[in-house]
Amino acid sequence: MHFSIPETEVRCGENGSSYVAYNIHVNGVLHCQVRYSQLLGLHEQLRKEYGNNVVPAFPPKKIFTLTPAEVEQRREQLEKYMQAVRQDPIVGNSEVFNSFLRKAQQETQQIPTEEVQLDVHLSNGQKVKVNILTSDQTEDVLEAVASKLDLSDDLVGYFSLFLVREGKDGSYSFVRKLQEFELPYVSVTSLRNPEYRIVLRKSYWDSSYDNDVMDSRVGLNLLYAQTVSDIERGWILVNKEQHRQLKSLQEKGSKKEFIRLAQTLKYFGYIKFDPCITDFPEKSCHVIVSAGNSELNFHVKLPNEQIKEGSFKVTRMRCWRVTSSVPVANGTANGGSSGKSELKLELAFEYLMSKDRLQWVTISSPQAIMMSICLQSMVDELMVKKSGGSIKKMLRKRHNGSLRRSESQQAVKSPPLLDSPDSNKEAVVKLSSKLTSVTLRGISTSNSGNDISGNNFHGNFAFEGIGDDDL
Q1: Which of 290, 266, 249 is nearest to 418 (CA)?
Q2: How far is CA 310 from CA 207, 233, 281, 419, in A?
Q3: What angle (nearest 5°) sits at the alpha carbon of residue 237, between those of residues 233 and 238?
Q4: Cα–Cα distance measured from residue 183 to residue 410, given in angstroms and rounded to the nearest whole number
Q5: Distance between CA 144 and CA 395 in Å, rounded?
Q6: What's the pLDDT tens digit per position in 131-155?
Q7: Nearest C-alpha neighbor of 364 from the set 298, 284, 292
Q8: CA–CA separation, 162 vs 142, rounded Å?
Q9: Of residues 98, 216, 204, the one with CA closest to residue 157
Q10: What share of the chain is helix, strand, coil (3-state, %, to 5)?
């Protein structure tokens, strides 16, 4: 997760005195607004729980009112503190830290704790209405959806909740995977835009795990609905003959066979991102990025209008980093007097192009953080598989020893038959791995007025040294 504090606000307290509020952004989106004293209280809790040797140092108190320069210095120090806490595998995933963020999110949005009905969408557009509390965390909501669908407890961990934006023009953009430190109801309602919705999708990459899911009637229906939806959106490539076979299997109601055929198709199980910009193989190239099968796939439009395709294997990425920055305009970081600014997000990864040559590749996209999350989850899955482990998650035990089960279940509806395939798709030319090399572009230097990313590199434990014969 990418934590930043890009800005501060001067607020008026209940007694009329003013104070500085720090806007904490998670993955480029405002999560909560907190005071220094609240963060100090969190630090004291963490220090009591884990000790001074584990918890990073906290910015010291000041006796006198801070000058603007000191406010900015404290903002930078608090940002580095939050990033350091989150990156610690124990402290950053602790209930103390996550509950602080959940409470701060709810207080910032001023949403009281009460019973509500939340719509969670399936891939085929079907709504699942669940009764929850506004203060229920992501795991609570996921379990409520599983209960409503009658999905067995041991399969809940194969699915996750995602925040997506579905435009009126049919566009479908992934914003992020909902995390344990946020409240889904608060996250979606605070956006105040009906285009945003919460969607249930499978959370793994390796299609061999589909077998576990398909052994369950509900799991099979969910996976079938997602596969049909991905084909309809053009995320999975299908030619006319394959389309005819798939439609025939649909008509017969052969869902397992439908999925098994789809597994053989290009881009099965991939997530497709919105068009964006990359510097590979040339600067300022338009690209459509897809994530899946332990790789990032590039569908690049070169300046000469030629379309090429290539893939970057996650096992050949030495590390990656998300850079978030505020563009410079007219000598100010925000380019105006409103105090609000659009963040520029970039994902850059260092890739082993040949046996002895590493090169940075950069993607400029509002979905850069979602791409980073995909990379991390692919690495995690590879490492679990390499160690002989299982991706099944150990669900947190409830006080009563079991999950809350809904009194009424809802069936997953079968999607309609596939539409005819689009015959106007552009032909794709294979992108050679021996393309002319591009200039190494470091990402430690920002061309913005306010680089707020810190040194948030993601080391890749799945990185493998390779020889030229493997390229």
Answers
A1: 249
A2: 21, 21, 10, 28
A3: 100
A4: 23
A5: 13
A6: 999 999 999 999 999 999 999 999 9
A7: 284
A8: 10
A9: 204
A10: 30, 25, 40
DSSP state for residue 314 in the 8-state scheme: G
Task: Give the integer Cα–Cα distance in Å for 286 and 67.
Answer: 44
- Residue in 291, 393, 372 with CA at minimum distance from that of residue 26: 372
Contact 225, 213 (CB under 8 A): no
Residue 239, token pair as written in the block = 């030619």
Return contacts of 35-38, CB within 8 angstroms, 24+ apart: 36/74, 36/78, 38/104
Taking the CA atoms of 355, 361, 367 and 372 in sequence, report the sign of the dihedral they define. positive
CA 393 distance to own-chain centroid: 18
Q: pTM higher than 0.90 for the full model?
A: no
Q: Which pLDDT band, with edges at 50, 70 and 90, does 386 fall under?
A: confident
**CB burial readout 410-423, b (16+ within 10 A) else e:** bebeebeebeebee
pLDDT digits (tens, 9 = 90+) for 167-184: 888 889 999 899 999 999
| Strands 115-121 and 196-202, sheet pairing | parallel
From CA 77, how far away is CA 58, in angstroms rounded? 8
Q: What does each C-alpha distance from 469 to 10, 23, 352, 361, 413 come to in angstroms?
A: 60, 50, 13, 22, 48
